[in-house]
Design goal:
By secondary structure, the chain is mainly α. 77% of the residues lie in helices and 0% in strands. The protein contains 7 helices and no strands.
């Protein structure tokens, strides 16, 4: 029977299966959230119980079936709850991306300062005038000394790590 303009067109079976898989994946991602974030989402007790049970299951097939059950429970959520879950994941992903970018920037500057000499240090101090120049110079000097002495023995990386922490704090302080 051909579809008329009065009846809404149902999504295809493939589209329904893709939507179910998406919801199951979102349910599995809920397992990674801390309890405080789960509580803030105000999820149904049955779903919270299923998530707790999935954390306890160690058998592969049992865990697969529990994940499918979580996906089925996810399909029963309303749009507002799904939007809240999606927003939580987006915020978490953005935070992770920002932390990774900060980490990479600090690593980049540490390598640049250790290899670039006074020109790199001057550039850092120009871009970050609030930095403790004396502490930065001392850490650079000690990190270079440790790197030079590490050829005979295991490397001492205390100054290297302290330099990284200092740079990360300086870079992180700008965005706050």
């Amino acid at each position: 029977m051909p579809a008329t303009s009065d009846t809404p067109e149902r999504p295809s079976k493939t589209a329904r299966k893709a939507q179910s898989q998406h919801l199951q994946d979102a349910g599995v991602r809920l397992l990674t959230l801390p309890a405080a974030q789960l509580a803030a989402l105000h999820l149904p007790e049955r779903l919270l119980g299923a998530l707790d049970e999935a954390r306890r299951i160690t058998h592969r097939e049992g865990l697969r079936r529990q994940r499918q059950f979580i996906g089925r429970l996810m399909r029963q959520l309303d749009e507002a709850q799904l939007a809240a879950i999606s927003a939580t994941f987006e915020a978490r992903d953005a935070t992770s991306a920002a932390a990774a970018a900060l980490q990479h920037a600090a690593e980049h500057w540490r390598a640049r300062l250790l290899d670039g000499g006074d020109a790199a240090l001057h550039e850092w101090l120009t871009q970050h005038p609030a930095s403790d120049a004396q502490r930065l110079r001392a850490l650079l000097r000690q990190a270079r000394k440790d790197a030079a002495a590490s050829t005979a023995s295991p490397p001492q990386r205390r100054a290297w790590r302290a330099l990284f922490r200092l740079l990360r704090e300086e870079l992180g302080g700008e965005s706050a």
